[in-house]
């Protein structure tokens, strides 16, 4: 069956949404990696997002039709949302790993000063 214009528009919007949604996690992952710290990042935000993405993705999977012929079409129609929810869930697992790794490092190195504590502007006359 071919898509009509409305379905195709929704499908395109779904894939654009998927790209933006997946792309939203990379800046935080990169920033945490660069600083070797998750300070200032709310783990509760990521934990709740993980629960939301997990339940949303599962709702799409569990709602799948019983007949084999409709299952492939259903999967194809919901693919961008499945990729978005489970893909972001996968990336949030990496954020969780960063929270665990960088928390242990912080406890092991009590004298370490975060870069954000240092002043941004230095008086050039004294330098």
TrEMBL record:
GO cellular component terms listed in the entry, alphabetical order: lysosomal membrane
Bilayer topology term: Multi-pass membrane protein
Gene expressing this chain: Pqlc2_1
PANTHER family, sorted: SEVEN TRANSMEMBRANE PROTEIN 1-RELATED, SOLUTE CARRIER FAMILY 66 MEMBER 1 LIKE
Transmembrane segments: 6-23, 43-62, 82-102
Biological role stated in the UniProt entry: Amino acid transporter that specifically mediates the pH-dependent export of the cationic amino acids arginine, histidine and lysine from lysosomes.
Stated family: Belongs to the laat-1 family.
Alphabetical keyword list: Amino-acid transport, Glycoprotein, Lysosome, Membrane, Repeat, Transmembrane, Transmembrane helix, Transport
Keyword Nucleus: no
GO molecular function: L-lysine transmembrane transporter activity
Domain of life: Eukaryota
Cross-referenced Pfam families: PQ-loop
Annotated localization: Lysosome membrane
Entry protein name: Lysosomal amino acid transporter 1 homolog
């Amino acid at each position: 069956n071919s898509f009509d214009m409305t379905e195709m528009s929704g499908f395109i919007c779904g894939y654009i949404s998927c790209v933006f949604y997946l792309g939203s996690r990379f800046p935080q992952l990169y920033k945490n990696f660069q600083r070797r710290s998750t300070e200032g990042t709310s783990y509760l935000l990521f934990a709740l997002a993980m629960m939301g993405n997990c339940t949303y993705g599962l709702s799409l999977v569990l709602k799948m039709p019983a007949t084999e012929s409709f299952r492939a079409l259903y999967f194809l129609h919901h693919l961008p949302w499945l990729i978005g929810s489970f893909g972001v869930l996968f990336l949030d697992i990496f954020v969780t790993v960063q929270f665990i790794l960088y928390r242990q490092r912080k406890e092991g190195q009590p004298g370490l000063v975060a870069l954000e504590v240092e002043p941004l502007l230095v008086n050039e006359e004294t330098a």
